[in-house]
Amino acid sequence: MAKKVPNPNGKKGCKEHQDEISKIAGEIESRGLIAVFEYLFEIVKGKKRKRYADVVALSVPDLKVVEVYQVGVSCNDGKPAKREREAIEDIEEHSEIKNIKVKFRKYSRILLIIVIFGLMSMVFLMK
Predict the structure, then answer these.
(1) Which of 104, 109, 111, 113 is nearest to 21 (CA)?
(2) What range defines the domain where residue 120 resides?
(3) Residue 2 resides in a domain
(4) Could you tell me which residues are beta bridge partners of residue 67?
(5) Eight-class DSSP state of 12
(6) 63-73 confidence digits (pLDDT tens)
(7) pTM of the entire structure?
(8) Mean pLDDT over residues 12-31, rounded?
(9) Is 1 inside any structural domain?
(10) Where are the beta strands (DSSP E) in 43-101?
(11) HSE on the CB side for 109, CA within 13 Å?
């Protein structure tokens, strides 16, 4: 059985995940809203009892949640990975906030892999 490598950044995710969240926060704030990271949703009768959205937008001045974003990897068909789908479903269907739609944004580590492979190839060819 394959050993699972722990994520050194914990819930924050990898650099690409964090970069996408920062990008979303910038978009939110450019529209005059407040960006909040790791927003807690209490879940009733969902897969888990609580879920953390990666970033939410709060309206000003009443501080109501107006947008919810979940960032993660997607399957080959473009749909969010299972863990992301379950989190989205819990927030949309089982949280205290009704009629909220979670926006999924994917990130990719493929470009990073290509760059690393390219650099390794260059080092090998230079020997």
Answers:
(1) 104
(2) 10-126
(3) no
(4) 57
(5) G
(6) 999 999 999 98
(7) 0.77
(8) 90
(9) no
(10) 50-58, 65-72
(11) 12
